[in-house]
Amino acid sequence: MKDLLVVLDTNSRDEFVTYSVSMARLFGAHLTATGISLDFVPPPSFVGEYPYQFAAAAAEETSRAVHAIYDKFHGAADLAGIVSELQMVEGLPSRARQDFGRLTRTFDMIMIEQPSRDGNVGDELLVEASLFNSGRPVLIVPYIQTGEVKLSHILIGWDGGVAAARAVGDALPLLKKADKVDVVTITSRRADDKEMPGFDIAKHLARHGVNAEVKRLPASDEPAGALLSYAADAGSDLLVMGGYGHSRLREFVLGGTTRNILGTMTLPVFMSH
Fold first, then answer.
1. Fold of the domain spanning 153-272
2. Tens digit of pLDDT for each residue in 214-236?
3. How far is it, in rounded angstroms, from Cα 273 to Cα 258?
4. 10-residue stretch averages of pLDDT, the chain, 273 residues long
């Protein structure tokens, strides 16, 4: 974890800046911040001349707001001895989405805030783009996060699938920092230790020096709620899980469990797809 990307927007909180900088300090990593300034696209019902002055003013205001937040970000990073830079993504929404996807592919991890509670579609689209277009792991930081990064107790949501396997592999640098790792499975099938889902991945982690224990939860219609409830009871600092979605016209949208986790998360969530 030597090259980290942090997604800033006009609503980025100071707590998110603090958390991101502390993650970079933990690994001695370089920090790149990115913000997105979109060109105005008139709705289909728009009639009249294109409002050039309005569009330019709106883009400039967004850019100024992101730069103001980056100034705080850069100041905090500088105090921590971390090198940082800003790379803005600008242009029409479709072009900016492509440019953002290309930018994210050359970093060890992407850090982004939980999609806003006001239902802003753009926030969720940024998470989707980070998760499905980057090929890189994404760390989503919740609104309620305060203080610096903690990795003493990490929870892995394990279902044996490809996305979960990818997430565990990508999260190894974080898992090695933990004092305790719980591999949590949700299953109704009776099994002994050697057959229990999660046994093999715990054995694999042990070979990397990670102290992992398998925990089994009963089957649930709400796996997201079960994982978050366990995390709260266990005092976990981080949840590692696969990021799931559904294909839609060669793109992806967040799956139900992933969206439920992001909507109700109470701790940072590390996802890979």
1. Rossmann fold (3.40.50)
2. 999 988 778 888 999 999 999 99
3. 11
4. 94 94 98 86 70 79 90 96 94 81 95 75 72 91 94 95 94 98 81 68 96 90 88 96 67 68 90 91
Helix 199-206 to helix 162-170 angle, to the nearest 10 degrees?
20
Fold annotation for 3-141: Rossmann fold (3.40.50)
Decide whether 3-141 matches 153-272 in CATH topology.
yes
pTM of the predicted model, to two decimals?
0.88
